[in-house]
Each structure stands twice: as C-alpha cells, then as structure tokens.
Amino acid sequence: MKIIHLANHARCIGNGIVNVMIDLACLQARAGHEVIVASAGGGFEELLARHGVRHVVLPQSPKPSRVPAMVAGFRRLVAQFDPDVVHAHMMTGALIARFSAFSRRFVLVTTVHNEFQRTASLMGIGDHVVAVSDAVAVAMARRGIPRERLSVVRNGTIGTPRLAGTPVASTPQLAHPCIVTVSGMYERKGIGDLLNAFALLRRRVPDAVLYLVGDGPDRAAMEALALTLGVAEQTRFEGFVADPRAYLAQADVFVLASHYEAAGLVLCEARETGRAIVATRVGGIPEMLDGGEAGVLVPVQDPVALADALGHLLTDADAHAALCARAPLNLDKFGVQQVSDGYLAIYERTLASCQPRRFATMVTSNLAVPEKS
Questions:
Q1: What is the pLDDT along the chain (373 residues), one digit of tens a residue?
Q2: Cβ distance 280 to 259 under 8 Å?
Q3: What number does CATH give the domain 178-326?
Q4: Which of 231, 242, 287, 344 has its CA at 20 to 30 Å from residue 350's CA atom?
Q5: Residues whose CB is less than 8 angstroms from the CB of residue 344 and which lie 6 or more positions away in sequence, other chains included
C-alpha cells in the first residue's frame, strides 16, 4: 500500500498523537509499504528516513488564511504519490484530505486521539474512524459515528522505534521515596489534584518527593500552587524530558491524575518498567491498566483518594511489591507491532469496501455535530 500520514507537526515534545504516528509510519515502512509523513516537521525526520519513510513539509493550521496553501500543497502531494490510504491524526489534516477534491482515489482513515475535544466529532468525516480505546469508541458512537465505520486500536509503545537501541540514562538520581508523573503541564492533566494530594501525603510520609516531568502553559500556575500548599521544596518541576525512562525506572510510585485521558501512552511505559501505578478511573485509563489489575484506580479530581492510594503504596511493602510484579504482565497487546497490524487490517478492509477505488461521498448533513457543553 501507499500511505500518507497527516499531522500538524512531527516535533519531539512528548505529544502522544505524534508519537503514535511516528511509530506507525516506521512499522508500516518496515512491513514493505510506501509511507509518507506530511507535517510541518520537527525532530523526527532523521528517524523516519532511517526507516525508509519520506517526510514532506505540509504545514497544517486551522487558520482560514492558510487553507488555500494547505489545499494546494495536499493536492500536489496526492497527484505525485497517488496514495491508497490517507491517515489523518488531527482535525486539520482530516478536513484537508476530505474536502480538497470532489473525487479521490484514496480512502481516508481518521484516528480520534483526544475525544474530550469538541472538534473530535469532525473526525467522523473519515471513511473509517479509529478510536484509541473502547471508552473513546463509546463516546464517538454517542456523537453519531456509525458503528460500522468505527473500530478500536488501542495505543501502545512496547518496542517503539523511537527508543530502539537507546540505553536508559543513568542520570538523574532521584531522591526516595519518590512519586513521579510524566505529563504535560495542563490543568486537564490533574497536576493541581496531584499537588493537593501530595500536600496531604506528606503528613503521612514527610520525606516523600514529587517529580513532575513535563512542560506546558499551566506550569507557572502549578509552581505557584506548590508554593501556596507549602510543598515547593519537595516538588521538582523537571520540565520536558524527551526520554523519561530514567525517571520511570526510579519511581517508587508512578501517578497519572488526568481529568480526561483517551489512552495514555506513558502508562505502557510505566508498566514496562515494573512500576507501582496509581491513576484516575477516567476514559481509557482502566483499559491501559487491565481494569485495575496492573495499577490502582482512583476517582477523578479526588485528591484525598489519590493521597490515600499513594500513601498505602509507600508504606505497605507487600502491596507495593505485588503491584510492581503485576504491572509488566500481559503487555503484548500494547506492542507497536500489534498497533501497526491493527491499522493495516483496517486500511485493507476499508479499501476492499470501496473497491475499485470508488468512494461514497458523505454530505455535510451526515456529519456528527459537536456536543454542546
């Protein structure tokens, strides 16, 4: 097959959507397919080239003023490459691919990575729509995506080419006992809840240290909250780290306190390193933790419950050891090869249902309307 992956950028900034796309492109090229990634670029071009994936600069932006240039660039790319499949990972790319021409010779596959966004409904313009967890599939069906055009391929990072052959760094050396999260500094990631839980936890485990690995627009507000709660000296804002495995490998407890989470890739990484994990029972997180067998699930936006779970694992050695032992079990389903195989099967089914390259035109009235808040 000839495959084009579309995303706004390919920057190495810890963006899970980009990481999934890069893994897919590399695995699909390894399987013998012709693969192009079209984006504004970033830091993965060398990796893509090593795997035989061609990167084409195609800036994608929701700004109306950029639409003519984006459409023209996409049309040129399609005319030159004549793809079988265009796979859009973000809303802008999906719209460009769907409406750049009245007739087309490719199928459009879209992936819903962030169902919580109102614009996620627009991903329904694909000939086939992929959800990254069962929870996302249920939500998208509720928004009007027909079940026959909806499939689930769970995210996974085990065996990622992004880290292949790269040893785990020996630094930094973390203080113990320590709690680690790897997350963007966004309010929706529950960083505020984690800081409040940490303030409560220190009454029970006064020598605990919290490491926040990641960056984002709410970092300053979170640093101010740590000061207000009196835990700034015990909280380490580490910023973005391209390869956080050194932090994961040393964490006494890994935590993900998200308010919304379609299927956090970092949970696979934490499980692979055999960490004790605490995470919120929201979105696709329970699926990533085998329903609670591979990690403790707590209610969302509940710092007290979060503090209790963290405190239990930091003070009960048997409970901690048992959870660490369960974390790395049954990880095959989160392998990048399984993810790639799942998408390739969807491409083939979608192409077969539209043969001979004759595609049904979806009118605007059939599009799902974004839910009102």
A1: 999 999 999 999 999 999 999 999 999 999 999 999 999 999 999 999 999 999 999 988 888 888 899 999 999 999 999 999 999 999 999 999 998 877 788 999 999 998 888 889 999 999 999 999 999 999 999 999 999 999 999 999 999 999 998 899 888 999 999 999 999 999 999 999 999 999 999 999 999 999 999 999 999 999 999 999 999 999 999 999 999 999 999 999 999 999 999 999 999 999 999 999 999 999 999 999 999 999 999 999 999 999 999 999 999 999 999 999 999 999 999 999 999 999 999 999 999 997 645 444 433 334 444 444 3
A2: yes
A3: 3.40.50.2000
A4: 287
A5: 1, 28, 31, 33
Extents of the domains making up the chain = 2-156+335-366, 178-326
Nearest to 173 by CA among 251, 271, 259: 251
List the structure tokens of 305: 């419950």
> What's the burial of 22, exposed, middle or buried (CB within 10 Å: 0-12/13-18/19+)?
buried
pTM: 0.91
What is the 8-class DSSP label of residue 316? Answer: -
CA distance 46 to 24: 15
* CA–CA gap between residue 312 and residue 140 (Å, rounded): 36
- To the question of domain 2-156+335-366 being in CATH 3.40.50.2000, the answer is yes
Classified as helix, coil or strand, 184 is coil
